[in-house]
Amino acid sequence: MSKLWGGRFTKETNKLVEEFTASISFDQQLAAQDIEGSLAHVQMLSECAIISAEDGERIKAGLLVLKEKLAQNQLSFDVAHEDIHMNIEKQLIDQVGPVGGKLHTGRSRNDQVATDMHLYLKEKLIQIIQLVAAVQASILGQAKENVETIMPGYTHLQRAQPISFAHHLMAYFWMLQRDKERLSDSLARVDLLPLGAGALAGTTFPIDRQRSAELLGFSQVYPNSMDAVSDRDFILEFLSNASILMMHISRLSEELIIWSSQEFQFIELDDAFCTGSSIMPQKKNPDVPELLRAKTGRVYGNLMGLLTVLKGLPLAYNKDMQEDKEGMLDTVATVEGTLALLAPLLETMVVRRENMTKATKEDYANATDIADYLSKKGMPFRDAHEVIGRIVLYAIEQNKYLLEISLDTYQQFSALFSEDIYEVLQPVATVQARTSYGGTGFEQVREQVRLAEEVLNT
Ligand code: ARG
To answer: Has 156 been annotated as catalytic?
Structure first.
């Protein structure tokens, strides 16, 4: 099979080399972008009179046929043509004859491949941002229903202070908000066109790069042709933003797994989102959040992989850079799949409010509130902390919770105690009392939900 670059060669390519160097098995996912890029390029070539208007039209018509075939799933690819660029070009030439060979005027696969990836990521980032927003909407929906649902809040996975379940969920809303902001911010660096950089040095043809950018919907072109073909920062940035996003999802997944365990029973995941065991008939396993947690690993791996590929590469293009694609494609698919599942999983999750509330009554998570109580009555907080520490120790020894200790006993620890301590100790009251901005007090959480709604709708 003769190669598009075969002129300089006297031998057929070794079959193993052909397989090893080819990228068509994965870069065929960029076929639509490759055709889009070529359509704009040929339009620009013809407007700049680099090729005749007639040739331009014939090439365009051929590309449109290929575009249609792709939409019908009728384009086939051949490893002998190495990558998506040469596969498309070869089929164009088969379609329109030798004039198809004019398409590559003033262009190299180096600026072409970078263009394809910019086009691809730009599109995908917008879709991913929308998917993140859908997960935020699910979180918000659950939060609105659970402002006054109280549960133990944890530090060190030990019960710390009672909180509103909505408050806990909303923490993830804000993490995802930052993820969205990071992804949107990175769009500015994706929205930069490399096309027209040629192999590395620009071209001798009087091309109009601004016009190509306009045709492809890019706001700017790379000002340096060497940077244009060597830059993969925009992919790294996506992979690192995706890693942070997946880390957030992994943390949430971990909580969902813990909360749905027999030991906690704080939530129940919908049957449609769980799987069973082949041996233990009673099992209902949280496989989905487990896999969401695990898939974080491959996204981190893709980031580390590309960072390592790029480290130490001299300018400009090196074949190493072909290794930039699989990790990017895999990350897009992983993140899209993850987000698409997470939204309905959260939406259908049942909250076991009674179990959460019960848990707040069976611990010492209201101890800080007695310390605050004493310090509001004039005792320095540090001393109050010491006094309450002793009360908790006494309570544990007596096998009692703080609400079950008599006023007499409290007064033996400090004369500052009076009857109102029992109101302060009610878990609902302890949550309610945290009225500081951003705290778990119900009014603050409602305010937070209002703000989140505003943010989500802008
Ligand atoms: N398949 C190649 C890649 O993905 C396209 C660019 C090839 N350029 C070259 N000079 N061999 O990187």
So the answer is: yes
